[in-house]
Amino acid sequence: IKKLAVLTSGGDSPGMNAAIRAVVRTCAYHSVECLGVYRGYEGLIDADFKQMDARSVKGIINKGGTILKSARSKSFRTKEGRKKAFENLVAEGVDGLVVIGGDGSFTGALIFNEEFGFPVMGIPGTIDNDIFGTSHTLGFDTALNTVVDAIDKIRDTASSHNRLFFVEVMGRDVGHIALNAGIAGGAEEILIPEEDLGLDRLVDSLNKSRQSGKSSSIVIVAEGDKIGKNIFELKDYVDENMEGYDVRVSVLGHMQRGGAPSCFDRVLASRMGVKAVETILEYKSNYMVGLLNGKMELTPLDKAIKGKTKINLELLRVSDIMST
Ligand code: F6P
């Protein structure tokens, strides 16, 4: 193997730059050329490439976003698009592709491999932590710190005005961000898709918290929660059905995806980049690198895509006890 390519795809996440740096520098360490691909699979189809060496990735370990840019490519979903991508990689003499992204990006990589036999390797980069085969995806830890910082600030104003705040956090179909940040931010209630306890439990919990003497409350709502009302409808529901609450809503949105990666994400990205490149140099393909029990482990890409992450039941219990 003489030349690898690297791209970032799907929603960006803090730590992607640190992972690009690790891939490029591991290539340099092993005297393998490295080609950066701009805009994910779009750039693969448009041959939007940049030759990278160890110095091209200086000063980026601490930067959020991705210097290679990211995209959710529609063209790569077509056979013609993937054929063009393959031809471009062959023309450049690339022997393997490292994809930094989430499950949608890995699905694309797997189809590409099935069609053309092209070696692919995945690095899980998403704030959602929704990928099987790793305890942490790149960016999850940073996003948690960002959300906790926001909750702390909201709590200041919530307690000054004796208000109830519904705070919506990202996470797509899973509640890992909500549960972890909710515990760390001292939320009174956390609504996640994995635990659909319904409106009654929310009302009950708010009543109890008021009876216990709390004058302000924060409820964290995962964007994918299944309570059946969006966050604004939840506010309306409480306004209409519960006495004496002054309710506000805060949707944190894309600020959760930005910012300098945490120490944890920088170290994780560096480890994952090294493992991904060294695995592909061993002529292995179709794996995702992940962190399991403190070690870098490989999970077949199809398992990483199909497997489900589980919510930590102990954390659920801790959150229940803490809202007493
Ligand atoms: O997967 C990361 C994520 O930020 C999710 O948490 C969220 O549902 C989604 O991407 C938002 O996507 P977009 O940036 O396309 O609005």
From TrEMBL:
Mg(2+) binds at D103. Residues 3-280 form the Phosphofructokinase domain. Pfam families: PFK. It comes from the Bacteria. Its EC number is 2.7.1.11. Pathway: Carbohydrate degradation; glycolysis; D-glyceraldehyde 3-phosphate and glycerone phosphate from D-glucose: step 3/4. Keywords: Allosteric enzyme, ATP-binding, Cytoplasm, Glycolysis, Kinase, Magnesium, Metal-binding, Nucleotide-binding, Transferase. ADP binds at R21, A22, V23, V24, R25, R155, G186, A187, E188, K214, S215, S216. Its cofactor is Mg(2+). One of its GO terms (biological process) is canonical glycolysis. It is found in: Cytoplasm. SUPFAM superfamilies: Phosphofructokinase (SSF53784). The active site is at D128. Substrate binds at T126, I127, D128, R163, M170, G171, R172, E223, R248, H254, M255, Q256, R257. Signal peptide: none annotated. InterPro entries: ATP_PFK, ATP_PFK_prok-type, PFKA_ATP_prok, Phosphofructokinase_CS, Phosphofructokinase_dom, PKF_sf. One of its GO terms (molecular function) is metal ion binding. HAMAP family: Phosphofructokinase_I_B1. Belongs to the phosphofructokinase type A (PFKA) family. ATP-dependent PFK group I subfamily. Prokaryotic clade 'B1' sub-subfamily. Homotetramer. Catalyzes the phosphorylation of D-fructose 6-phosphate to fructose 1,6-bisphosphate by ATP, the first committing step of glycolysis. NCBIfam families: PFKA_ATP (TIGR02482), PRK03202.1 (NF002872). This is ATP-dependent 6-phosphofructokinase. It comes from Pseudalgibacter alginicilyticus. The gene is pfkA.
